Amino acid sequence: VVVGALLMWTGMAISGNDSSSEVTSGTTTTDENGNTSQTSSNTTSNTAGNLSGATGAATVSAATQAAGMQVMVSLSKVNEPTWIIVYDNVNGAPTWILGAGLVFPESPKEVAIDLLRPTTAGQTYLIAQGSDVNDDHIYTQGVDMAMRDSGDKVITTSFRTR
Q: In which element (H, E) is residue 9 found?
């Protein structure tokens, strides 16, 4: 079951953080036709963006970090089990899922998301959050969907690797 869930993910991860507090953040939304809109900024804050597409959603961010098989994500407290989903970024749009991790109300403020394949240095990746629709604690692509805005676009924030 675990191996099957990993294969369905097509990939997810969180990579180790260094002492740098630089955060590259942005919000990208993508509709069902692949149309995207994007805003981005660089800041020294540890809060990159609110990925809330629904009431009670957490604020999720990731600092610039080393490429690898994990992604370190900072988040505010979630109210229910929530998937943190890491995506490849193609022209500002979330594409292949690299990995996903389920966080709970009692989860720490920083979590590591394991990936199915490593991130590459110098690239920008996207993070989204979604509900555990079946309450089964198994990420199911196409069922445990990322949160969307009122225009049905996936709500994401970005981070860079070095």
A: helix 2-9
